[in-house]
Amino acid sequence: MKTLRTASLYLLAGLLLTASASQAASSKPDIVIVATGGTIAGAAKSETEAGYQAGAVAVDVLIEAVPQLKQLANIRGVQVASIGSQDMNDEVWINLANTVNDLLDSRDVDGVVITHGTDTMEETSYFLNLVVDSKKPVVMTGSMRPSTAMSADGPLNIYNAVAVAADPRARDRGVLIAVNDDIHAARDITKTHTTDVETFRSNEPGLVGGSLFGTQVFFRSPTAPHTDGSAFAGKIKGTLPRVDIIYAHASMSADLIDAAVANGAKGLVIAGVGDGNMTAPAIDAVKRAVAKGVAVVRASRVGAGIVRRNVEVSDDELGTIASMELNPPKARVLLKLALMKTSDAKKIQLYFDRY
User: Is 39 an active-site residue?
Assistant: First the structure.
């Protein structure tokens, strides 16, 4: 009888522990890590080799490499691509955006973390900032060193990114980027160094916050419309139009502008000198492009500042669009989305003024 009573007590204790563990798991947020490849999933032949293969490590391996993630959230992974972000393209963007939107539509998902290469992270993050249709946190992260490197920065970046995505205060702040203990807004971030782990900067707007070993502090919220407040939010159908970036320089000719138009570009972004300027022959080529119905945005190759309308160049006369705060890569993203709605330069300018 005593043995039976003891067994019953052990069974009851086991049930209570199971229930307690189940309750603890259910109280944690459900975060999905969506992997696209990049250096964070890269592998090299040795811990000190600079060269590596991007996207060589699968998402499940990345998750297993940081077991502490289970303390923050219930985690699962989805592999969308396994590429270096220099090979990021429209097809992957659309697949990624639609996958994220589908995940966030689920009641079983509280937030999404996206692992991505650093080369084009500023473009992908801004694209998602405009098309994700949810207030739930979306946090991107990456690394400057491959997973096999000495002092790899990826594991802590993933840990902090999950911590940010699991934080209720991250809701409705648009797409965020958690790298190197910093939290950036997608609209503001830019890569500024080829190899430094502190490569990402937000220039004049500044950081959204910081994340130190999974503990967040938030300084501000982005003010431009984003995610479910964006006119572009929702699943993407069809293809994105071709938009090329042309880099301005001394003695800039008209050739590349004419060639881009001849090869099917529906939009052009001129990475102009100074305040979005270019040579007289380039201006003439822009006039020809606009006359053929090509949307042309004047941006600047300078790392900071605003390109306003009609300052040194008459946009009204040229029929061009001023990029405002957006750098050339981000201006290209917005122009691609704007062209899916209109080819009217005046209406496109309103998007640049707003987003």
Answer: yes
Instruction: Please list, in sequence order, all residues whose beta carbon lies within 8 angstroms of the beta carbon of residue 35, skipping any fewer than 6 positions away.
Output: 41, 58, 59, 62, 77, 78, 79, 80, 81, 82, 114, 115
183 DSSP β-pair partners: 178, 209
DSSP character for 196?
A: -
pTM: predicted TM-score of the whole model, two decimal places:
0.90
Three-state SS for 39?
Answer: helix
Q: Considering 3, 18, 36, 39, which one is annotated as catalytic?
A: 39
Q: Where in the chain is the domain with CATH 3.40.50.1170?
A: 28-229
Question: Range(s) for CATH 3.40.50.40 in the chain?
Answer: 243-354
The mean of the pLDDT values for the chain is 92
- Give one word for 180, left, alpha or beta, with left for phi > 0 and alpha for psi -120 to 50: left
What are the pLDDT digits (tens) for 14-49?
544 444 444 455 689 999 999 999 999 888 777 777
CATH architecture of the domain covering 243-354: 3-Layer(aba) Sandwich (3.40)
Nearest to 54 by CA among 117, 115, 96, 113: 117
Fold for 28-229, please state it: Rossmann fold (3.40.50)
* Low-confidence spans in the chain with pLDDT less than 50: 2-4, 6-7, 9-13, 15-23
Which ranges in 39-175 belong to alpha helices (H)? 59-64, 69-72, 90-105, 121-131, 154-165
